Amino acid sequence: xxAVAAAEAAIQDAGLDPETxxxxxxxxxxxxxxxxxxxxxxxxxxxxxxxxxxxxxxxACIPYDVLFGCPGWIQGVIQADAxxxxxxxxxxxxxxxxxxxxxxDRYDRDSMIFSDGAGAVVxxxxxDSDGAAGIIGASVQSYAIDELNYIYMGKSYAPExxxxxxxxxxxxxxxxxxxLKRVPEAMKDCVDKSRIAITDIRKIFIHQANEKMDxxxxxxxxxxxxxxxxxxxxxxxxxHVLGNSSVATVPTLYDMVRKGAIPHxxxxxxxxxxxxxxxxxxxxxxxxxxV
Length: 291
Description:
Blueprint: H1 2-14, E1 23-27, H2 46-53, E2 62-66, H3 72-85, E3 91-99, E4 116-124, E5 134-142, E6 151-155, E7 166-170, H4 172-194, E8 201-206, H5 211-223, H6 239-242, H7 249-258, E9 272-279, E10 283-290
Parallel strand pairs: 1-2, 1-3, 8-9
Antiparallel strand pairs: 3-4, 5-10, 6-7, 9-10
Helix pairs in contact: 4-5
């Protein structure tokens, strides 16, 4: 239901006929978890359910899900852009949706910050032109050896927990150290591939996992360019309001800034912004986008 609500808002904002969509890409991690249960339901796919709820009859509109940890929504954006460049799609609806409140262990302190949310965007392929709005570069990385189980599913910390029921767990310190080292590298790789200067970046929309960690990541990112003085208001935050909703943090944060819902934060036509995320896998991605 959250995915559908976000999709409807994005479609209305874009002012388009949903029947003209070529793809519906839904990023999530736990499927549809019904109230009062812990069981994940991903058949049929969430994207297919969204298509039905939107009443789209066009058989050429292809719905599918993306499982990529917290960076799932950004990965959906990257995939849509790849389909544009391949000439296989012109309009894509990309959604990030998660109900983490239904898969957390109430006895686990690390779960305190998790929340529910959904965000969506419509992307459309446009004719190339210098300085035009759109994606100008991306970087994706995956570390899946020792890092694979930094975020995992495990039993509750409750004394009498049912061993057959598992909840989301994470090795907080290892996640923090991993993100602090690897995310700035991926962000720099994205900026370098985009052939822009770091001084061209006006905003950084980073996954809302932990405000202290995000601030440290931004500091380390600028340090890779030998910059100590980080631009004021470069990193909008809404975790203190919305918590960590996994795949939904970046699109909801961007939506709030677009609508002036966060003081001293705004984006304008022509601004170059950077999206970045890290999560279970462990996966990292970043996208440079010109508004």
